[in-house]
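Dear colleagues,

For the upcoming journal club I promised to circulate an example of a predicted protein-ligand complex. I picked one with thymidine-5'-phosphate because it came up in last month's discussion. The inputs are reproduced below in full, followed by the predicted structure.
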Amino acid sequence: MLITFEGIDGCGKSTHIKKLKAYLTDKGYDVHVFREPGGTPLSEQIRDILLNSKDDIHPLAESLLFSAARAQLVATRIRPLLDTGAIVILDRFFDSTTAYQGYGRQAVPVPDIEQLNRLATQNLEPDITIYLKLDPEMAYERRKKVRKEDRMEQAGADFFKRVNAGFDALAAREKRIVVFDSSRSAAETFEAIEGHLEKMLPRL
Ligand code: TMP
């Protein structure tokens, strides 16, 4: 089973992924968590370029780098684990490329990004995508308390509004995407996630 988490920076993904991993492990599932971009040595090197490069990265090159990191992770880690019956949780997946590079950057057309996504994943789709929805200003307030901004986070408020609108558009279109209001307390949001997932977990 493949579970992905999406949302803008500061939406609370890390907290809920940690909670979900503990919850599913306690139930006896074999659970693996990866972050995107990252999750393999090569993909982590690409992450470092994407988040810390001092050079300008052209929007098409940026889309291709996110996709290259993803292709490596899917082929060498995710597919083999799913084949064993494990539960894989991903901190971001291709919806982030559609929202950030497609809707956010507005340089590569969304249909082209979606084609790239299918190629990089070889058509692998999540069973469920947990979209943690949070107002961009609230997300900014939350994340500035905990860390320095990386290259993506420096893109500015208008960029994040477009990314947010991108996630909303995807959620309206895709049945697999379930929206959770992340402005509530972490405990309340997690209770809602747990309640939803309960119904769809595989038999042990
Ligand atoms: P993270 O901070 O959630 O680990 O994500 C890294 C940053 O990269 C975050 O700002 C979102 C961005 N990103 C994209 O722009 N496109 C993508 O395809 C992915 C996976 C992440």
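Two points we might discuss: The beta strands are 2-6, 31-35, 87-91, 128-133, 177-181. The chain has eight helices and five strands.

See you all on Thursday,
B. R.
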